[in-house]
Structures are given as structure tokens and as C-alpha cells.
From TrEMBL:
<feature type="transmembrane region" description="Helical">
    <location>
        <begin position="68"/>
        <end position="89"/>
    </location>
</feature>
<dbReference type="InterPro" id="IPR051817">
    <property type="entry name" value="FDH_cytochrome_b556_subunit"/>
</dbReference>
<feature type="transmembrane region" description="Helical">
    <location>
        <begin position="101"/>
        <end position="120"/>
    </location>
</feature>
<dbReference type="GO" id="GO:0009061">
    <property type="term" value="P:anaerobic respiration"/>
</dbReference>
<keyword id="KW-0472">Membrane</keyword>
<protein>
    <submittedName>
        <fullName>Probable Ni/Fe-hydrogenase 2 b-type cytochrome subunit</fullName>
    </submittedName>
</protein>
<dbReference type="GO" id="GO:0005886">
    <property type="term" value="C:plasma membrane"/>
</dbReference>
<feature type="transmembrane region" description="Helical">
    <location>
        <begin position="170"/>
        <end position="191"/>
    </location>
</feature>
<keyword id="KW-1003">Cell membrane</keyword>
<keyword id="KW-0812">Transmembrane</keyword>
<feature type="transmembrane region" description="Helical">
    <location>
        <begin position="132"/>
        <end position="155"/>
    </location>
</feature>
<keyword id="KW-1133">Transmembrane helix</keyword>
<feature type="transmembrane region" description="Helical">
    <location>
        <begin position="26"/>
        <end position="47"/>
    </location>
</feature>
């Protein structure tokens, strides 16, 4: 409800949001779908970073990532079909091929979301941890681009008013991210979130025998 309400909020802005991103029927659903996509992709992103930090000595989580990729593929495909379908149904394709600043942003956003689908469909790429990480980053950037566009970049409040976060607001946002990282480090040190490397090595040696 929270995520779909964010999309509903911008419906009230009407024509102040660029037509490529304004959708009176689909904006709440798009907001919800991008939240799902970002939520699942951040798991792959974070898990890949942990594996890289452990230099391959941690627990192999590729099976978990594959299951997440199956779910993500459905959400990604649904979002893209509805996204392009809404543009075609509402006759907005002229804006998409205008080749101005906003149309370029749209194609960048679309490319970032289409690329992971290609990665997930290829067996070779699915078994490549590096490509999984790149695919997760691409999804995060694609969804973030869509959210930034409909709420900030493609939003024109009128009357010569323009908004960009002040340095104080940016520092607050960075501070929240830093707090989350510190909390994560503290939790994995205090709780058995990441399996002990010693136990993993024992299991690997036992399997070899």
C-alpha cells in the first residue's frame, strides 16, 4: 500500500508529469512492481558483494539467486509489457521517439531493465556470478531511473519552481545508508547470519572424501 500510494500521489500532479511517465491507471501498479524488483535484486546485489568479500569461501548461494531470478523475470516482464502497452494504448509513442532529453531517459531506463531479462534467460550468464551481479545492478539502476523520472526529473511543478536536494538533505540520505551498513555489519558479527567459514571448509573437505 505504501509503494502504490507513492505512485497515486503523482497522479494528482496531472500534466505536470511528462506523458511518458504519467499514467492515471498504471502509476500505482508500476510503483509497486518496481519496489518488488528492487527488493529482490538488492538481495542478489548484497549476496554477491558478501561472496566477493569472503573470496569464494562463503556458502554458495547460487541456488537461492536462481530462484530469485525466476521471480524477478516475471516481475520484469510484467512491468515492461504493461509499460510499453500503456504507451501504445494511450498513443504516447511519439514522445518515446522524439529523441529529446526525456525520450533518451526512457530508452536508458528500458535498456537497464531489458538487459537483466537477457542475462536471466541465458544459462551461461545464470551460472556466472559476475553477470548476476551486473544484472542486479542494472535492475536497481533501471527502477531507480524510473522512480527519479516520474517524481523529480520529469516533474515540472510550474511557475519557474525547480527542486534539487540541498547538501543537507543529501547528507541525511547518505547518513541513513551509512547507518544501515553499520547495522548490517554489527548484526552479522553478533548473529549467525553468515555461516562460519570453519564449518563450511569442514563440509567441503568431507564432500571431497
Amino acid at each position: 500500500m505504501h509503494q502504490s500510494s507513492m505512485g497515486s500521489l503523482m497522479i494528482a500532479a496531472g500534466n505536470k508529469v511528462h506523458p511518458i511517465w504519467q499514467s492515471y491507471e498504471m502509476l500505482p501498479l508500476f510503483s509497486l512492481l518496481t519496489a518488488f524488483i528492487m527488493g529482490f535484486s538488492i538481495v542478489i546485489f548484497e549476496g554477491s558483494l558478501v561472496q566477493a568479500g569472503l573470496r569464494g569461501k562463503g556458502q554458495n548461494e547460487k541456488d537461492l539467486f536462481r530462484k530469485l531470478m525466476t521471480i524477478l523475470s516475471v516481475f520484469l516482464a510484467l512491468f515492461l509489457v504493461l509499460r510499453f502497452g500503456e504507451l501504445i494504448f494511450r498513443g504516447k509513442m511519439g514522445y518515446v521517439f522524439a529523441f529529446d532529453f526525456y525520450s533518451i531517459l526512457f530508452w536508458v531506463e528500458s535498456a537497464l531493465l531489458i538487459f537483466p531479462l537477457v542475462v536471466f534467460r541465458s544459462r551461461k550468464f545464470r551460472n556466472d556470478s559476475r553477470m548476476l551481479f551486473i544484472g542486479a545492478v542494472s535492475m536497481l539502476l533501471g527502477c531507480a531511473t524510473w522512480r527519479m523520472c516520474y517524481s523529480l526529473v520529469a516533474f515540472n511543478p510550474g511557475g519557474g519552481y525547480h527542486y534539487f536536494p540541498t547538501w543537507e538533505e543529501l547528507l541525511i540520505s547518505i547518513g541513513f545508508v551509512a547507518i544501515e551498513i553499520c547495522a548490517y555489519i554489527l548484526l552479522i558479527r553478533l548473529l549467525p547470519i553468515i555461516p562460519s567459514l570453519r564449518n563450511i571448509n569442514k563440509n567441503q573437505e568431507a564432500s571431497k572424501v
